[in-house]
Amino acid sequence: MRLPTFFSKKRGDRRTGSAAWGSFGEASFYAGLLGAGLLVGGLMLTGVAVPEWRINNEFVAVEGRLVGKGLARRAADRRPTWCPALLLEYRAGDRLVRAWHTGSPAAATADRSRAVTGLKGWRLGQPLRCWYDPDHPESVVLSRGYSWWLWLLTLLLPGALVAFGGSGLVRAAARWGRSEERQAAERGSLLQPLLPLPTRAADYPAVPSCDDLTNSPGTIQQFRLPTESPEGWSLVGSGLFALLWNAVVVVLAVAAGLDLAGGRTDWWLFGLLAPFGLVGLVAIGLFLRRLILATAIGPTHLEISDHPLRPGGRYDIHISQGGSVAFRRLELLLELEEQATYQQGTDVRTEKQVVWSESIRRWERVEPVPGRPFEVDLCIELPRQAMHSFRSAHNSVNWRLLLRGTAGNWPTFRRIFPLVIVPAPGTAARGRAAADREAVS
Known about the structure:
Blueprint: E1 7-11, E2 14-17, H1 19-57, E3 60-76, E4 79-92, E5 95-101, H2 112-119, E6 127-132, E7 140-141, H3 148-175, H4 180-191, E8 223-224, H5 230-261, H6 267-297, E9 300-304, E10 314-321, E11 327-344, E12 347-366, E13 374-381, E14 390-391, E15 395-407, E16 413-419, H7 427-440
Antiparallel strand pairs: 1-2, 3-4, 3-6, 4-5, 6-7, 8-9, 9-10, 10-13, 11-12, 11-15, 14-15, 15-16
Helix pairs in contact: 1-3, 5-6
């Protein structure tokens, strides 16, 4: 057995780090997170979840009466707190039991006069319904129920640590002793069966199919093209972030509120709540801004007279742009975009570039009509030398119609409508004839 070295090889005047020690450090980090999650989860389960579950499912209900009352003194944060203490008398099986009930720690207050005032509401001799522990009859409660925020806190924090630490530990163990090149090859072989194969046109093996572009009929023209909106994904992403972040803020705020109700002040909790709340408000503001923008602009529909398209063809288009704001500018463009997927080291990168663009029509100062969208009919003509659509494992050539506009003082929005262009009739035959002539010569 050989221990891992600190340094593996020397390059120039520096040494590269040992992969074995790097894997060991990564595994140790994730193992620490996993252990912390299990420890915190165990403490919260045994201290909060399990006792609460036993009260609601295993404690025995019985009729008792109040035979004494007083104040219980507790020491919290070096400050004494007070809570009502009730002496209950009830029958546990064949035994008459007297036990004190002091309530939950959240009921304690630092104001003794307030605790005395709350104690005056209890009358000696009054009957009370209570629940006692069958294993320890002296343990008694006056109410049952679940604290949803405690259960949420119990599941969220340790669950996140366990999931993050466990997945990282498995990943670090899988990487142990394997080079980065071998890991990249193994990931590719595992993910390859899960990736959907691109559909092809029946007569043109290298041209993508347009079945998904012709399955929606139009109201004016034959087909309604699907819409790709980058702003839609930004709206969904900002909404999810605002929801998850503010859920954590609500949990912290409930904990801080219970502390204040009990007369305690946890400055660490308030110090954590302040920046978290600020980030939550900013997230809500950004989400509302994107939501108002999407609502004000409205949906965009584009219908076309035929599909797929051919180079040199003329096609009728119907555009319908909703919205309740005035548009400073609307512009329809025909664009050609090339996409390349390549491997740089062990990383797989995808680059996109618009290599050709032509403006079809531009509208200035479009004023909306109340209750009606902005509609226009026009005709487009494709270039006769246009490259047909193409898709392979690593490269693609994509055509699209782009509607770009600016509404009021809002940022520019874009609506993308993909197109499929097939080769012109006779192109394949001419290509084969040229190849045969070259072979003969």
